[in-house]
Predict the structure.
Amino acid sequence: MIVTTEAVVLRTLKYGETSLIATLFTRVAGKIGVIAKGARDRKSRLGPSLQPMNHVTAVYYYKQTRELQLLSQCDLVRSLKGLTDDVERMAVGMAAVELVDAVTPAEEENAPLLDLLLSTLATAARATRNPGNTLYYFETRLLENLGFSPGFHRCSHCGASLEDAASIHGLHVSQHGVVCAKCARRGMGIEPLSAPAAKILQRLQEIRDPEAVTRMTLSPQVKGEVAGVLRRLLVGHVEGLRTLRSEAVFSSLLQSGSGPLAGDIQL
Ligand SMILES: [Zn+2]
C-alpha cells in the first residue's frame, strides 16, 4: 500500500554506505520507521528534506510485516530554518522531537500531538525572544495529550485551591502535580515550589497560543523550577523516559539565563 502523509522527522541514522533510517511522526499512522535507500548520495532527492525537526510530506510503501517501511519520496512542507539559526530555538526543537519519540508507541495515530509539535516548532523557529518558553508550553500540552492533566490550580491530593494555599503555607510538588503544604507533610518525594513558579505553571495550562509564552520573561530560578516540575511529571508518567540527549543543552542555557526585555511580563 502506498501512503502519502504529512510528518515531522524525529531522528535519522546512517545505514550502510549511502542510506538513512529515519523515524517519522506521521499524521496518518503516528510514529513509523522508514528506510531511505541512497538518501546520503549527493544526487538523492530524499536526503535534503530528511533532517530531524523538518516538516515534510512523505510517501512510503507500507507492509504490515515490515519493521521499516520503504520511503520513496520526502518533500519539505515548510522550512523551519529558524530553528537551526539559534542555539536556544534549536534546543527546543531537539527536545520536542526527542520527547515525541520517547512518549509515543509505534504506529499509533495521534494527530493532535502532531499539530502540537508543528505549532511548537513553528513558534520556536520564529520567536524573537524567549524561544525556550515554547518547550514549557509543549510539555504542559504533552502531559494533557497523554491523558494526564496535572493539578496546578488545585492541590492534586485534597483539591484545595492553590491560590489560597500559596499565600498561607507555600506550595510543594509531587509526581502528580502541585500539592498544598498540609498534604505535603504526609507525602514522600515532595519538594518545595515557589509561588511565582506555581503561577507560571498555572498560566501555561491556561494559554492556548504558543506565541503568548514567548512574551513571558522568567527569572533563571523560575525557569529552573518550571522546567524541573514539568520534566518530573513527564518522567513520573511516561515509563522508561529518562534523561534526554537535548537535556544538557537546555540546562546550560538555563544557567546562562537571558536578560529581560522591555514590555515583557516579569516574574
Ligand atoms: Zn492538599
